[in-house]
Specification:
The complex is a heterodimer.
Chain A (H helix, E strand, L loop, with lengths): L1 H16 L8 E7 L4 H16 L3 E7 L3 H13 L6 E5 L3 H6 L6 E2 L1 H8 L10 H6 L10 E6 L1 E6 H7 L7 H13 L3 E5 L2 H12 L6 H4 L14 H16 L9 H9 L3 E7 L3 H4 L6 E4 L5 H4 L9 E8 L4 H14 L2 H11 L6 H9 L2 H4 L4 H7 L15 H16 L5 H20 L3
Parallel strand pairs in A: 1-2, 1-3, 7-8
Antiparallel strand pairs in A: 3-10, 4-10, 5-10, 6-8, 6-9
Chain B lengths: L8 H30 L1 E2 L8 E2 L3 H7 L2 H34 L4 H9 L6 H12 L5 H10 L7 H30 L2 H10 L3 H12 L1 H18 L1 H6 L12 H11 L3 H26 L7
Antiparallel strand pairs in B: 1-2
Classes of the chains: A alpha/beta, B mainly alpha.
């Protein structure tokens, strides 16, 4: 019996030793912040890449939300266990660009110069390219899932109320009473710091912080209380809430989206990427540009900031791995893959060659929903930078989240709230400036 | 009696080494690191670290939101400890009196103890969501309950979610305490006093004091440290930061905001608070408790 066992062990060992050595494909680890349908789309991209070649394998891992992923990857980096590529969102762009000098992030443009085959910088849509670039315009992150805030409209409700989709907030004020009369909530919105703060400023061509939104100098304060247009907007929002034209359902994204999905609200302001979750769930909806105040811009429409995230390459990996990563980046930004991603998720296409391909095959005639995001992001005429570089921004968003409800329920005045937000933000900006 | 002795020092150190290693790595090392973070300023990746004295502490203590969180945490501790202890005691007394199906009641009451705080929060979410929530709609019908907007309604929401889980823990310990009381004392008291209410407060409850004291400490630690998952899955601090506990705030600043200096300073402030509470309990309360 004992001998038999020994024989068996020897057999197993021998069989392993005699196996022909197959070159193992390079593993590329990619951490991202998508869940649900968006995660399934990323897995599909990975499957396509893995099937298209056998040199490397892409292993995507979802780390939860955008905030979670930033914390997870920083912890991993400090332990020396970081992945090759990581997805970091708009509010984290300042942190990532600042980490180039410490050698954490490997700038995309440097990698492309070293390993790229047919990398063409000018193919990337400038607004998207510059948001994740340093102050000299060098591309640091790889533009990937680019969204912006858009307005979703339930056309059945609009028909029942006998109104059209508004272009401006003035028009919205005209039609809101009719929608309310028809028994529906006119408006909801899912992310006050992102949609009605950051993108309020970009939509109306106003500066949000000093130091030219942080592009020229390290910002020291936000300009909330110093911008009368911003105060007016929130004064109006409070009026709307009191009249029942706008409803606030706390700070959770989904709680504010739920009434729209249930067919109880006419308009919902959300992300371009919300499209993937609503397609086939909400009947008869359209995706539109986000409204603006005609009285502020004088009839002109300005672009909003890019939302969503970019992929960032991390340092400390081997030459072969970077060569494989560059091929992967070229695959992911190829027009065909982008169009697939654009179509499935609702995120914008990030290169001209992808939008050209979309036009060529008549994509936007077939699916008019997808038009709004690209259109709104490519608007021109802004005199402010196409983004903001302000540190500690995730916590500044917390400060905003804490003050808006107080303003809306009348606990503090709008002016007082703005003052408190500026004070809170300045402190956090000063705290971040100490680490530079 | 013969004393057991090891022949060399090596053997004893060898046997306590694993235990010591665990304590050093998982308890003392993090504390040292927390102190280092609290007195230095660094970026999220740990670069550019320099000594900053008490900067992080003044930054934290001058933040009005921190004071709000501190006040809420103190209210939270008192309310959770009081309600979960008293309801747990009530249930234990009742379950102890039940004659038929005693173990079925006990098992059912103990179950919630096995649920993780985050899961408790998600479950509570179903009860308090505006669209699906039974309790939301019930309270809303009574007085227009709306935790998105009203601070006190949000308090009620987290209080219910956080104390519900702890009731079963208290129940187990009180039940064990009740069963430890000698039958003869209870029987003697029945002869002396007719009122079961008075018997409970003069005989049973004093005999339960050691258990109660222990449970109060357990509940304070629970509501202080273990409720992070519940806050994160219920109100996220709604309506406007009033339902953030100190631990939750440290978590947000440290892990979401990536400001390790401020989070470190907050941890040390919390350590001091817990230290004060514990010293107070042992100095002033324990003296009044009679162990058998």
């Amino acid at each position: 019996m004992k001998n038999l066992f020994k024989f068996f062990i020897a057999l197993v060992t021998a069989s392993f030793l005699s196996l022909p050595t197959i070159a193992k494909p390079i593993e590329l680890h990619y951490w991202h912040g998508h869940t649900g349908k968006l995660e399934a789309i990323i897995n599909e991209i990975a499957d396509r890449w893995n099937a298209s070649q056998d040199e490397s394998v892409l292993i995507p891992t979802s780390k939860g939300s955008y905030e979670d992923i930033l914390a997870a990857f920083i912890a991993a980096y400090r332990a020396g266990e970081h992945p090759h590529m990581v997805q970091v969102y708009d509010a984290g762009a300042a942190i990532m660009v600042a980490q180039v000098k410490n050698g954490v992030v490997y700038p995309f443009e440097d990698m492309a110069a070293e390993y790229g085959v047919d990398f063409n910088k000018d193919d990337y849509i400038p607004g998207i390219r510059n948001f994740y670039a340093d102050s000299d315009g060098k591309m640091i992150g790889i533009p990937f899932n680019s969204s912006t805030c858009l307005m979703y409209a339930n056309m059945d409700i609009l028909e029942a109320a006998g109104v059209e989709v508004p272009k401006t907030y003035e028009e919205f004020e005209q039609i809101a009473p009719k929608i309310l009369e028809a028994g529906y909530t006119p408006l909801l919105q899912s992310h006050s710091p992102w949609i009605w703060t950051e993108n309020f400023f970009s939509r109306h061509n106003l500066l949000m912080t000093d130091g030219n939104n942080g592009y020229d100098d390290v910002p020291t304060t936000t300009l909330f209380a110093d911008t009368p247009e911003f105060i007016t907007h929130w004064t109006k929002v409070k009026e709307w809430k009191d009249k029942g034209w706008y409803d606030y359902k706390g700070r959770a994204w989904g709680d504010n989206q739920a009434p729209f999905i249930a067919g109880e609200a006419a308009f919902w302001l959300g992300s371009a990427a919300s499209f993937s979750g609503m397609k086939g769930v909400v009947p008869n909806f359209t995706v539109n540009h986000i409204p603006y105040w005609d009285s502020i811009t004088g009839g002109k429409e300005y672009p909003t900031f890019i939302g969503g995230a970019a992929n960032w390459i991390l340092s400390g990996k081997s030459d072969e791995e970077y060569a494989a990563l560059m091929k992967l980046a070229e695959f992911m930004t190829s027009p065909e893959q982008q169009l697939f991603y654009h179509n499935m998720s609702g995120y914008a296409a990030v290169t001209y060659s992808a939008t050209d391909l979309a036009n060529e095959i008549g994509f936007y005639e077939a699916s008019p929903y997808h038009k709004a995001v690209g259109e709104q992001l490519s608007l021109t005429g802004s005199t402010i930078p196409g983004g903001y570089r302000a540190g500690n921004w995730p916590q500044i968003r917390e400060v905003l989240y804490e003050n808006y409800p107080k303003m809306l329920n009348g606990e503090i005045s709008i002016e007082e709230g703005m003052k408190r937000m500026d004070e809170g933000a300045s402190k956090l900006l000063a705290q971040f400036a100490k680490t530079l | 009696m013969k004393r057991v002795q090891f022949s060399s020092y090596f053997t004893q150190y060898f046997f306590i080494a694993p235990q010591l290693a665990i304590i050093l790595i998982f308890l003392y090392l993090p504390i040292v690191q927390t102190f280092r973070d609290a007195f230095t300023i660094q970026d999220a990746f740990g670069f550019g670290r320099y000594f900053s004295g008490l900067d992080n502490f003044t930054f934290v203590l001058s933040d009005p939101n921190y004071i709000t969180a501190l006040k809420f945490t103190l209210i939270f501790i008192v309310v959770i400890t009081f309600f979960s202890c008293s309801i747990g005691l009530l249930l234990a007394v009742q379950a102890n009196n039940v004659i038929h199906g005693k173990s079925a009641y006990k098992t059912l009451l103990i179950w919630p103890y096995a649920i993780a705080p985050a899961v408790v929060g998600v479950t509570a979410n179903y009860f308090f969501s505006e669209r699906l929530g039974i309790l939301y709609n019930f309270f809303n019908g009574l007085w227009g309950f709306d935790w998105y907007d009203n601070v006190y309604d949000a308090y009620i929401y987290v209080f219910i979610a956080a104390s519900w889980k702890q009731i079963s823990a208290n129940f187990i310990f009180f039940l064990a305490g009740l069963q430890n009381i000698q039958k003869s004392i209870i029987e003697a008291s029945i002869i002396d006093c007719k009122s079961s209410f008075r018997r409970f407060w003069t005989i049973t409850f004093p005999l339960l004091m050691p258990t109660t004291f222990f449970l109060i400490i357990i509940n304070i630690t629970y509501s202080f440290f273990d409720t992070l998952g519940i806050i994160d899955t219920t109100t996220i601090g709604a309506p406007s930061g009033e339902t953030k506990t100190l631990v939750y705030k440290a978590y947000i600043d440290g892990f979401k905001g990536l400001d390790l200096g401020s989070a470190g300073a907050q941890s040390i402030i919390m350590m001091l608070i817990v230290l004060v509470i514990t010293v107070f309990q042992f100095r002033f309360i324990e003296g009044k408790i009679h162990y058998n």
